[in-house]
């Protein structure tokens, strides 16, 4: 084997081992290769400095999502949709008297997507309530899908391969206090006053952990509120590398 480099520099805990250092030096010195190491009492500093540089400089520019990330949503029931009809036994009526179905997987980040540290992924939400007070806090799950069903849409298509990573919870008092009442016609029997919360969950997966906040539009101005992540005791801490 022809060696083209001129020097070898040992770092980390192994570099402090004099036996290892001398063995490596005896191997490469006859070939004109200089073997060096830091002060044996300070070799671990190189490891610490490397970790700090990784954090400060963002050495890894992008990560690859190894699973699908999303959340569960409910949608208005459509009798003309075959996937809805097969789940007709799960239909429920919401506060406005509109039939809905739960159990739809809303994909936020697809498996195989390259994710940078600052890239944001958004999930739109609309919530209805008969009282403004019940919309002052929102909470929703972040799920991951590890299965192989292509373009999966419903949780019951491969239920064992879905896992709840955490719940996102945000204080929406600032938005809720400005909500104006809306009115819904209830089958010709009069109108029902209700309130609508229309917002987006904004997620970032590019750092070593998931982060989140919520945004909404108010009089043409984008406003936001921080969100906290609530993990179950046995939940896996997510990142795009997982």
From TrEMBL:
Look up keyword Signal and say if it applies: yes
Q: Which residues form the signal peptide?
A: 1-15
- Source organism per UniProt: Panaeolus cyanescens
Q: What is this protein called?
A: Uncharacterized protein
Q: What lineage is on file? A: Eukaryota, Fungi, Dikarya, Basidiomycota, Agaricomycotina
Q: Which UniProt keywords apply?
A: Signal
